[in-house]
Amino acid sequence: MKAKRYFMLAMMIFAVAFVSCEKDEDDETCDSENLSEDFNCPIDVDAIATFCSDGVSNSYYTFAGNDYQCTGVAAATCDEALNQIGVALLEAGCGSKKKSGAYDAGMIKLSAMAENLLEEVRMNSVCN
Fold first, then answer.
1. What's the sign of the alpha-carbon dihedral 67, 90, 49, 65?
2. Contact indicator for 45, 36 with CB cutoff of 8 Å
3. Residue boundaries of the structural domains of the chain
4. Do the beta carbons of residue 94 and residue 39 sit within 8 Å?
5. Which tens digits make up the pLDDT trace of 66-81?
6. Could you tell me the sign of the dihedral formed by the alpha carbons of 15, 16, 21, 25, in that order?
7. Can you say how many angstroms the Cα of residue 83 is from the centroid of all Cα atoms in its chain?
8. Does the CA dihedral 71-27-19-14 come out positive or negative?
9. pLDDT band at 1 (very low <50, low <70, confident <90, very high)
10. What is the CA radius of gyration of the chain?
11. What count of other Cβ atoms lies within 10 Å of the Cβ of residue 36?
12. For residue 60, what pLDDT is reported?
């Protein structure tokens, strides 16, 4: 009889753990970064970039009201999105007065933001 109780208790714990680990694919985690200083943007330019990811299948940057999709959920899959943001920053008048290499430092900052957020998503995803 005790074995049956322990078995039922174990099954209940397993069921609760399974239900609590179900993840809605729409759950996204986002992080924003102000790029004004890194790219020497004029005061009137809103240079905030946001990186969002669900940690499963969707990652993207949002900048100036546009979404720039990554091809996966690793920061390395966002190169094209970063290039597009860089072009948008230059078109907005940013980066023209900085010394050479400032553009690369800003892109590294954006990529690091993605890496940090993706690591956070992985750490919070105990069910995988």
1. negative
2. yes
3. 26-124
4. yes
5. 999 998 888 888 889 9
6. positive
7. 16
8. positive
9. low
10. 21
11. 15
12. 92
Three-state SS across the chain?
Answer: CHHHHHHHHHHHHHHHHHHHCCCCCCCCEEEEEECCCCCCCCCCCCCEEEEEECCCCCEEEEECCEEEECCCCCHHHHHHHHHHHHHHHHHCCCCCCCCCCHHHHHHHHHHHHHHHHHHHHHHHCCCC
Measured at the alpha carbon of residue 90, what is the angle toward residues 78 and 50, in degrees to the nearest 5? 40
**What pTM was computed for the model?**
0.68
Residue reference for tokens 């209940």: 12
Q: What values do phi and psi take at 30, rounded to 5?
A: -130, 155
Residue with tokens 């299948």: 57
